[in-house]
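TA notes, week 10

Several of you asked for a full example with nothing omitted. So below is the full record: structure tokens for the whole chain, then the designed sequence directly under it. When grading your own attempts, check the secondary structure regions first.
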């Protein structure tokens, strides 16, 4: 950081060699103008331009002449007169510029001798100055592309982005098509005043306001009163300079400006428009993966729609195969297996699955439909909060108004959206337990060690949160890795004033720390450098799952002991959250009573992203899942129902709005209050969610049950996993590519939210077609093939209803813990039965080859 004080200009040269970062000579000119003490009268009085007209001179000198000229001025009446008027206007402006250059050019030359810029940068800067002196359009374009002092700076608008695209398209010189001319370069500059050591958070604004009062500064909207913002914000200017100016040039210029103006000036990055698109060496791998995947998807879709596979002609009729040929049967089985694997990449098949509102063939007793709505509503809640929180200050104006947001009672619904994460943990624990208990009971024996090992491997391959009574199968590892591959390829394709600052660092983190996501340890190892910050939830959920089978095994063999251990786990989670909060003196939850983000980062790194505070909601979900399995229909008295709804409503209202007294600044939570709240709040929220699910599932949920069980939530719920993965990235891409500063308002944010919601679900649908569903189905087929004879490979007796009486291949839904919330379907035989009649095993037409009633089951599903 540059230090205020005497500076030896000879020591200003920095040997840092980085990518192109320019210097803006016009900024330096402004420095000297501000340092000059000449009065405006002196400038106006020295008009020595012999090329100017007499009329121009009379306008510039003397009030009497001005009055006479004004009396003679006549507005243009037609285009011809306008051209004369415009030419006269340019002449007058040129005269004034000539005066300014003659006045200050000696000072510019003197100053340039103290800043050793590169020869080409100096030459191009002089060419720009000469172009401005002559009012050349290309020079005006470069000047106009630079940001000026932001409008509304006292109201917290700290950014002037300039015109990013105009700058990159500009060239120095009259011939804008000449490729030899130096291009324009857009550079982002940060400016902030030098500040004293930062006071404690709770005293920050008070100390500055007291100091301003002591100095007699104005009470409202004085710059000194917004100075605390600069501890974590910067004044951002976008400037357009010659591309020939390197990083060393800019270092010299910014240090000179910092010294002369006593402010801290730095360059963040510079962008140059490339001559042509070029793929970097680190993009070839991701490009190959993406291209290969798209080729397979296109081929599978064509194969599904038009061809139909080997063994039949274009009319759909097969050739006659000998029923006595064992080789033919084996070949057909292999062909059927390969066809099943290949068809998992069919867009036609996967699209029909995603968009269907039908549920899978689970019995009514094992169907928990309200989970669809609860999952989607929780995701939407998170997206609304993230829309507010991803608004970058460099693209947002009127920041002063945002300081009042935490004080609004209704706005607490946004600030406490982290409760939706606890709902996700609750749902995950509920459905893992619910479906595992079903499978263990259907196996008619206790699971052995090999069964649990298979279960762990299966879980590692695909994460298993669930919905609507059917287990949700998510290939976390595959989906995350492919999304990272896509991101590493695509991050260079975009641009914008903030692109390098928001997107490039994320890409570098993905490149360096992808392995932490692969091993589910991103919330412990290199937590500050996670590829995508919101993926801590996936890692924490997997970490909680590691111990889940132990509890399930005990719960299955010894119900009371298992329930006791689960209750003890809840108590331990409560104690761990409270103890960490007390020892580290953390806030009770994520609070926003101070704009400084350091406190929230500390809270997140020490507690929020770790698995132990979320273990209580997860275990409450496990107990709820066990309760729903044991008691499929719970009957309660009206009094108990009323008390249950009253308590659940009180908990929800208090959890959402109870933090208002802290966020508004009316009160500071004591250490004891913070400890109790941090320990109990998540458990109470999970208990409220448990009551809602139990009540809706057992028929006394009323209108809420009708809403949560609506059919429209079924396809949306199938896309919720991908939507959760990509929605922060979609928001950051919007901010990074924006060209304008947006004045903050709730209306603007709500509009932006609906835009993000629509875009996210459209992209989620496309990614689900090409990433999630193909690999989910493929993994299911391979898993079933490998473990079809083990207890863990026996899916569910409910699947038998989807198998035709002739044991023909049929499209069916995998149920229990191995099917997806997406309602995943694929082609397969009944894993629990062997074909007794080889003639029945041979395909006789297209429907038999792909599955009985193939087309109907795609669209209507097997119920």
């Amino acid at each position: 950081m540059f230090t205020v004080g005497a500076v030896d200009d000879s020591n200003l040269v920095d040997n840092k060699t980085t990518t192109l970062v320019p210097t803006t000579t016009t900024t330096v000119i402004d420095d000297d103008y501000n340092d000059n003490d000449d009065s405006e009268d002196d400038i106006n009085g020295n008009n020595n331009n012999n090329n100017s007209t007499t009329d121009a001179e009379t306008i510039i000198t003397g009030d009497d002449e001005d009055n006479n000229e004004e009396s003679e001025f006549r507005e243009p009446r037609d285009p011809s007169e306008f051209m004369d008027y415009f030419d006269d206007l340019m002449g007058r402006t040129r005269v004034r510029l000539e005066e300014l250059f003659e006045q200050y050019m000696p000072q510019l030359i003197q100053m340039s001798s103290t800043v050793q810029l590169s020869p080409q940068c100096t030459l191009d800067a002089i060419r720009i100055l000469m172009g401005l002196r002559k009012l050349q359009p290309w020079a005006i374009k470069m000047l106009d592309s630079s940001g000026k002092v932001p409008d509304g700076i006292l109201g917290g608008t700290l950014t002037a982005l300039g015109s990013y695209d105009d700058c990159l398209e500009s060239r120095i010189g009259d011939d804008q098509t000449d490729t030899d001319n130096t291009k324009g370069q857009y550079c982002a500059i940060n400016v902030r005043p030098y500040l004293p050591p930062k006071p404690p958070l709770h005293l920050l604004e008070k100390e500055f306001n007291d100091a301003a009062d002591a100095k007699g500064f104005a009470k409202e909207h004085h710059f000194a009163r917004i100075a605390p913002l600069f501890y974590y914000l910067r004044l951002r200017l976008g400037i357009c300079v010659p591309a020939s100016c390197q990083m060393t040039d800019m270092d010299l210029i910014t240090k000179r400006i910092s010294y002369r103006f006593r402010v801290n000036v730095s360059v963040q990055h510079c962008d140059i428009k490339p001559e042509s698109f070029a793929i970097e060496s680190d993009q070839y791998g991701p490009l190959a993966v993406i291209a290969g995947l798209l080729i397979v998807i296109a081929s599978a879709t064509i194969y599904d729609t038009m061809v139909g596979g080997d063994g039949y002609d274009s009319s759909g009729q097969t050739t006659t195969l000998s029923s006595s040929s064992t080789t033919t049967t084996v070949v057909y089985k292999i062909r059927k297996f390969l066809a099943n694997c290949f068809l998992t990449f069919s867009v036609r098949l996967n699209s029909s699955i995603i968009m269907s509102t039908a549920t899978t063939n689970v019995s009514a007793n094992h169907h928990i439909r309200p989970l669809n709505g609860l999952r989607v509503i929780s995701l939407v809640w998170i997206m609304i909060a993230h829309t507010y929180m991803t608004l970058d200050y460099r693209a947002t104006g009127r920041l002063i108004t945002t300081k009042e947001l935490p004080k609004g009672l209704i706005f607490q619904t946004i600030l406490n959206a982290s409760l939706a994460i606890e709902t996700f943990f609750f749902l995950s624990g509920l459905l893992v337990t619910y479906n595992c208990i079903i499978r263990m009971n259907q196996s008619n024996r206790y699971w052995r060690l090999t069964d649990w090992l298979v279960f762990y491997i299966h879980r590692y391959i695909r994460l298993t949160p669930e919905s609507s009574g059917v287990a949700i199968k998510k290939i976390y590892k595959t989906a995350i890795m492919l999304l990272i591959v896509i991101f590493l390829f695509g991050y260079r394709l975009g641009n914008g004033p903030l692109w390098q600052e928001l997107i490039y660092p994320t890409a570098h983190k993905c490149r360096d720390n992808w392995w932490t996501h692969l091993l589910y340890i991103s919330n412990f190892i290199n937590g500050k450098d996670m590829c995508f910050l919101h993926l801590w939830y996936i890692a924490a959920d997997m970490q909680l799952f590691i111990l889940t089978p132990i509890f399930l095994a005990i719960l299955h063999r010894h119900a009371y002991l298992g329930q006791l251990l689960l209750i003890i786990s809840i108590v331990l989670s409560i104690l761990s959250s409270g103890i960490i909060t007390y020892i580290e003196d953390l806030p009770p939850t994520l609070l926003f009573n101070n704009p400084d983000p350091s406190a929230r980062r500390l809270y997140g790194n020490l507690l929020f992203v770790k698995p132990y505070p979320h273990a209580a909601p997860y275990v409450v979900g496990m107990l709820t899942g066990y309760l729903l399995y044991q008691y499929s229909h719970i009957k309660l008295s009206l009094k108990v129902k009323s008390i249950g709804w009253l308590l659940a409503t009180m908990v929800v209202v208090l959890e959402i709005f109870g933090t208002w007294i802290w966020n508004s600044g009316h009160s500071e939570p004591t250490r004891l209050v913070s400890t109790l709240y941090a320990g109990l709040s998540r458990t109470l929220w999970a208990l409220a969610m448990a009551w809602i699910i139990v009540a809706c599932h057992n028929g006394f949920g009323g209108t809420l049950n009708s809403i949560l069980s609506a059919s429209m939530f079924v396809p949306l719920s199938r896309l919720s996993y991908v939507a959760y993965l990509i929605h922060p990235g979609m928001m950051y891409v919007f901010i990074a590519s924006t060209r304008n500063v947006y004045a903050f308002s709730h209306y603007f944010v709500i509009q932006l939210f609906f835009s993000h919601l629509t875009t996210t679900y459209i992209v989620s649908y496309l990614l689900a077609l090409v990433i999630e569903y193909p690999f989910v189905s493929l993994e299911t087929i391979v898993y079933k093939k490998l473990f079809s004879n083990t207890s863990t490979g026996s899916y569910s007796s409910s699947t038998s209803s989807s198998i035709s009486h002739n044991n023909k291949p049929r499209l069916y839904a995998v149920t229990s813990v191995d099917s997806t919330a997406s309602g995943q379907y694929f082609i397969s035989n009944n894993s629990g039965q062997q074909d007794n009649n080889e003639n029945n095993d041979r395909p006789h037409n297209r429907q038999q080859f792909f599955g009985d009633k193939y087309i109907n089951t795609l669209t209507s599903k097997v119920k």
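The mean pLDDT is 75. Use that as a sanity check on your answer.
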